[in-house]
DNA sequence: AGTGAACTCCATGCATGCAAGAAGCGCCAT
DNA sequence: ATGGCGCTTCTTGCATGCATGGAGTTCACT
């Protein structure tokens, strides 16, 4: 069943990918014509793709003013981390009860790989495997809706997480937290698995918040329009509450 | 700031509303031309609206085959309830710590109104106030992202929840559960508030699951193209907004 | 009669055209 | 020089046109 993908879907995926991978920075203007030319189509599928991304919160479309990559301020990022924590926590809870033996084996394998890469020391390589680790747990929840939802929030946060692991010692701590989670999962302890996972994600939020309040602005580097980006990029340490 | 709303956004909201209110049933075909005529526009904004709804999971667009209102099977509904439980639980947890005095007063007022309507006995009227009750707690979380996310999941579930409260005694139990939640919230006990709210939502899932396993299937035929029953439901000119 | 295939028709996907609104710019006045 | 104002231009939002592919129908064949 060769499901034929429409141009607009392809574009939506490509653009989402650009945003998640940090190739399209927050605040960057997404010009319909430019994109249309770049992808060799007309503006119509581009517009439809942008509408889809807007509906998912990746871009913002201001009427008559075009689309820009959504720039989250610190507060919004922390808000998303709060959501992320409970969603991943639920994944872990359900996974503790529902993972098949094969999935458990998978989890162990990926976790072992994480440990290996943690020692190896390249945060970016670890980052990729870390993603796979979490994906295994999403799948282990056997809740497809949850899986998608969690992945979506993760993707929305990804531009703001890339540098997380570059913090000194963060990789080592991360893999240790994984280890605790894995243990709870394999022992089939849903409560503990959920709690540990929530804490694991929560720590990332905290660590980000520290990071931000130390440096004023990390790397706000807008592409085409010289100033637009910074507004959204992590700027004011307006810590909520 | 009179933000000018585009046609496509209006359409998206109107259609989402139709779906949530049960005027557009799962499986129903959404014909671009018909909608365009009904709303007095061309197909373009209709298409963009459908793309947005598709991105949010309200409709499914099969290439070259048009858009249909997504029909969730029992399993998917239960999956969404699992998500809903933790999201609402988080709302309650955060609200317990963050609600302002004014918001607490609001909560009490709405809760009192719920109690009154519960005795009055009309489930549909109670349903509306019940929604407001939960909305107050969403807002009390002081987490905008969470608020939107929770509302989105709630909306996706709404076609499947409308009849929930018609179950015998469900309204009374619901309001009792609310009462417990309110107490925890006002006492500022985040853990208890979260736990109670999770249970409150979880019960709805269970109750639905009972309901479904008793009766064969609620209403529409989901996956297999159920033909154009649409003319009837969407035929009302009351759709415009 | 049942099955299968080709044909027709039509909805969708995409391209293009056009009008309205916003951003940028230059001119004038203070 | 600076601030305000009108104009130009460009982009977006929407309408329309056209080609593709699917679904239903009809007809031939077994």
Automatic annotation (TrEMBL), chains A, B:
GO MF annotations in UniProt: DNA binding; DNA-binding transcription factor activity
Annotated ranges, domain HTH gntR-type: 5-72
Membrane-spanning ranges: none
CDD domains given in the database record: WHTH_GntR (cd07377)
Alphabetized PROSITE patterns for the sequence: HTH_GNTR (PS50949)
Region annotation Disordered: where it falls in the sequence: 215-241
Domain of life of the source: Bacteria
Entry annotated with the keyword Transcription regulation: yes
Pfam family, one: FCD
Keywords: DNA-binding, Transcription, Transcription regulation
Ranges of Low complexity composition bias in the record: 217-235
Descriptive protein name: GntR family transcriptional regulator
Source organism (scientific name): Nitrospirillum amazonense
């Amino acid at each position: 069943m060769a499901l034929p993908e429409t141009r607009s879907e392809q574009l939506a995926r490509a653009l989402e990918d650009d945003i998640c991978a940090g190739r399209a920075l927050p605040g960057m203007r997404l010009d319909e014509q430019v994109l249309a030319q770049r992808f060799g189509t007309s503006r119509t599928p581009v517009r439809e793709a942008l509408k889809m991304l807007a509906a998912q919160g990746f871009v913002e479309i201001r009427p008559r003013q075009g689309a820009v990559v959504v720039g989250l301020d610190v507060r919004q990022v922390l808000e998303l981390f709060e959501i992320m924590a409970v969603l991943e926590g639920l994944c872990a809870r359900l996974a503790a009860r529902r993972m098949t033996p094969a999935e458990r084996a998978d989890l162990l394998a990926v976790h072992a790989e994480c440990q290996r890469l943690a020692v190896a020391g390249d945060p970016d390589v670890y980052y990729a495997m870390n993603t796979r680790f979490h994906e295994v747990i999403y799948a282990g929840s056997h809740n497809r809706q949850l899986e998608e939802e969690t992945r979506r929030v993760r993707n929305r946060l990804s531009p703001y997480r890339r540098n997380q692991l570059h913090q000194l010692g963060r990789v080592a701590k991360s893999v240790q937290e994984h280890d605790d989670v894995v243990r709870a999962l394999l022992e089939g302890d849903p409560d503990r698995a959920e709690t540990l996972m929530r804490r694991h994600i929560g720590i990332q939020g905290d660590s980000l918040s520290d990071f931000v309040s130390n440096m004023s602005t990390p790397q706000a580097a807008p592409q085409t329009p010289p100033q637009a980006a910074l507004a959204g990029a992590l700027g004011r340490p307006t810590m909520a509450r």
